[in-house]
Design brief:
Order of helices and strands: HEEEEHHEHEEHEEEEHHEEHEEHHHE
Strand order of the largest sheet: 4-3-2-1-16
Helix content: 25-40%
Oligomer: single chain
Strand content: 15-25%
Number of strands: 16
Radius of gyration: 21 Å
Largest sheet: 5 strands, antiparallel
Structural class: alpha+beta
Length: 380
């Protein structure tokens, strides 16, 4: 897939290179609120689970203040956050709300490999295995066809990654999507294409991957998210009789991993206007199934022809970079929708799109402990 990315006009030349990658979510939402005349403050907050200080930010109109972390605002209730973090509990809430999710089992760190294999086989292949504590696609194995592949996935996730508690689910055929829901409305959706390269008849897979990774570094949403040549990749292409030294034919698309996550080398393609209302309603109903989840990223497996969809996961703190910077398709102004939701009174504010700020001059002093908080000057 080539780079056909289009910028939102008001973000072009306004996103510093230092904000590329995961910081874009924070930067663009903070920028949108600040440009509307809201008071913007960055501050540090101790995260007990990670044993370190993380940077949060707040926006205020003088009468009310809302606090944010990444893309999530404080209207998302703590109960919702706790439920979304626990994938097994999330499935129970979705099942109770009759939102379709794949059948599966959760296996604790004490469950033996033989017991996982025995119980998982009752679901029937193909399967999906993923760690309960995983994120951004780390340790996710999809379309597992047989017991040998399941054993490899178990060993890789438990032994190499050290993630002992896992989920095994029935594999659902379809395509992988992320839908972003705010206040009961799907405002953006993109399809995740698995890591891939297109042959030119001369270059090896390794050379094509290196070329693709150079292109990815130029795209804000893909920055520092290369296609990694690891054991998982080599094992996957081996199933299709490829080696890393193989030379694909000109125009031949070679998929390199089963997982589709952008952070693992996948390609985001905007599909917001192509997803039917019926499927968007499934995503909305999934968020409504969780108390206090007013803002959420919904991962789904979708079959557009059948207009069917299964909810795979709910993320209360999703990045929005791929919605803003899809590799193909129309970018979606998610920051605008989020600020509209938290500060509806600013919808008609006059906005000067010439303003932007240097994130690093704010980010680094707080991260390094030289400042507890930094407030930017209001621009109007």
């Amino acid at each position: 897939m080539t780079n056909n990315m289009v910028w939102l006009p008001h973000l072009k030349n306004a996103v510093p290179k230092e904000a590329y990658g995961y910081k874009i979510s924070m930067y663009t939402i903070a920028l949108e609120g600040w440009r509307r005349g809201l008071k913007l403050k960055f501050y540090s907050k101790y995260n007990k689970a990670k044993d370190k200080f993380l940077i949060h930010y707040s926006l205020s109109n003088g009468k009310k203040t809302h606090r944010f972390v990444i893309s999530r605002g404080d209207k998302v209730e703590k109960e919702a956050i706790n439920i979304c973090v626990n994938k097994d509990l999330t499935k129970k809430y979705l099942d109770n709300a009759k939102v379709e999710t794949p059948k599966g089992y959760v296996f604790s760190e004490h469950t033996t490999k033989d017991d996982i294999i025995a119980q998982s086989s009752q679901l029937g292949y193909p399967l999906v295995l993923k760690p309960t504590a995983g994120s951004v696609g780390r340790g996710v194995f999809s379309n597992i066809q047989n017991e040998n592949e399941l054993i490899f996935a178990i060993d890789y996730v438990r032994d190499k990654l050290g993630l002992k508690e896992v989920i095994v689910e029935k594999y659902i055929r379809g395509e992988d999507y992320r839908l972003y829901v705010v206040d009961g409305k799907v405002i953006s959706a993109f399809k995740k294409i698995p890591p891939n390269v297109i042959g030119d008849g001369e270059s090896t897979l390794l050379q094509l991957i290196r070329q693709k990774n150079k292109m990815r570094q130029k795209v804000p949403s893909l920055y520092n998210h290369p296609i990694r040549v690891d054991g998982e990749l080599k094992e996957y292409i081996k199933k299709y009789n490829y080696k890393i030294e193989s030379v694909p034919k000109k125009g031949e698309v070679v998929y390199l991993k089963s997982k589709n996550n952008v952070s693992q080398g996948g390609d985001p393609v905007d599909m917001t206007d192509k997803i039917p209302y019926k499927i968007k309603e499934i995503a909305v109903n999934a968020t409504r199934a969780i108390p206090g989840l007013v803002q959420c990223g919904v991962d789904m497996i979708i079959d557009l022809e059948k207009e069917s969809g299964y909810v795979i996961e709910l993320n209360s703190k999703p990045g929005i970079t791929s919605h803003l910077f899809p590799l193909e398709g129309e970018p979606r102004d998610v920051p605008k929708e989020i600020i509209d939701f938290y500060f509806p009174e600013t919808k008609n504010n006059k906005i000067n799109y010439d303003y932007y700020f240097d994130l690093e001059s704010v980010y680094r002093p707080i991260l390094h402990g030289n400042a507890k908080e930094i407030t930017l000057p209001k621009i109007h």
